[in-house]
Amino acid sequence: MFDQVAPAYDRTNTVLSMGNDRFWRAATTRAVAPRPGQRILDLAAGTGASSVALARSGATVVAADFSPGMIAEGRRRHGGIRNLSFVQADATDLPFGDAEFDTVTMSFGLRNVNEPKKALAELLRVTRPGGRLVVCEFSHPPSRAFHGLYRFYNDRVLPVVAKAMSSNAEAYDYLNESIRDWPDQRTLSAWIREQGWTDVAHRDLSMGIVALHRATKPTDRD
After folding, report:
1. Could you report the per-residue pLDDT of 69-97, keeping only the tens digit for each?
2. Tens digit of pLDDT for each residue in 105-149?
């Protein structure tokens, strides 16, 4: 499914989110705070739009995704960036060594993993002690009134726009369902904490349509 939508994926997301995807990406980049000399894993990177933003800092960035179509499109667009590489990877069985990354991040991909808690544990494994986790994911607006408007948009408007924009409108039916069934901010924070991460916190973006979660891997002294 993701292979089929790869060529128009970023453009369609911008339209469906009414441009908010750029704001969410910028907020995630600020939370990661990439610096030269760091090694960063961007998991569920898709075509690498978020990875490019991280790589501009001078950090070494690995863009990983389960979809070979997404990886191929990312290499086609961004393969010339020296400090950015693309790797096909399963989030629940990452092909990286222990404590290999200073920061790991995942945007709008955790809910697509069959075993998200296992993915969070794998991200912990490949992060160095004291390293950081940043997860940007769809969530549930806490305002009941705004939540109703948001559900109306997802149920009635999004399918129509997706059909006009995307080569695979059914993929965006799945998107709507996966957002609706995904747990809220507090539940995801609890999942992160259960896997061994500390200093777990989150903040809402766009009135809670999206939540930005942050955590730290404990050191031996913790």
Report:
1. 989 999 999 999 999 999 999 999 999 99
2. 999 999 999 999 999 999 999 999 999 999 999 999 999 888 888
Distances in Å between the Cα of 30 and the Cα atoms of 3, 33, 40, 99, 176 are: 29, 5, 14, 22, 27
204 to 2, 28, 138, 181, 188: CA distances (angstroms): 27, 12, 10, 18, 13
Q: Hey, what amino acid is at 170? A: E
